[in-house]
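Weekend entry, working from home. Most of the wet-lab plans are on hold until the incubator is repaired, so I used the time to fold the two sequences that have been sitting in the queue since the last round of cloning. Logging both here for the record. First:
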Amino acid sequence: MLRHSHARRVPWSILIEEDPASDTSKHSVWWSLSVFPYQCVDSLEKLKFESLPPQESFYSLLKQECISDEDYEFCHCMWVKEGVRAMCDFLACYNNCDVKPFLKAIEAQVEIYK
């Protein structure tokens, strides 16, 4: 497990909450399914990088294309809004977007079986 001084733990309550007024809430599922520089982040060392990689680093070998200017701008906004300091934080935010629907399902199940 990578230990990094900038890594932070995100409380589950933040993942479950949705703010309809938030610019990022509408993109959370979209982001978790599409935008991460997979080919660029090919070592643990790269998780220590302290800036968003350039747009061309988001090239997808699977899709044979790079992300759009709009998608890159969204990634930049997420970097700033979430207080990301390094790629390991960006990865944590990206992974947390995958967790959000799962946590909602668990909460709904808990309510059913109370």
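Second, folded right after the first finished:
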Amino acid sequence: MPMDETLGLGSGGFGGRAAAVVDTKVRATLVGDLQAELVPDFFEGFARGARANVHVRVLYGRSSHHKIEALFKALPAPCGWLVLATGAWGECCPAQREFYDRDWGLRRRKSEFREGCL
């Protein structure tokens, strides 16, 4: 996701196993009132709570503020796609590879879901 001169990349999956990889490229200790070292902690906590794989990375940029904002903007895109496609936040979803075919279409076999998930 772009944030002015900065580009952030985000990817995620609700497969039931928590993992986070965060590359902020921020050298500053403080960005406004935010301690920059807490940004990876947030994404790691989100990954644990959602039982998700979360990968966010700043590809390039100048402003530390824009780098952090680009990461927060980059994560909802893949998460929103998966939630719309699966109808759940991972609790009912074995892994996203079960839901997408070669054309990124949704497989609608209800037998792949636990009861009450769709």
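Plan for Monday: verify the second prediction. The helical segments are 38-50, 64-74, 76-86.
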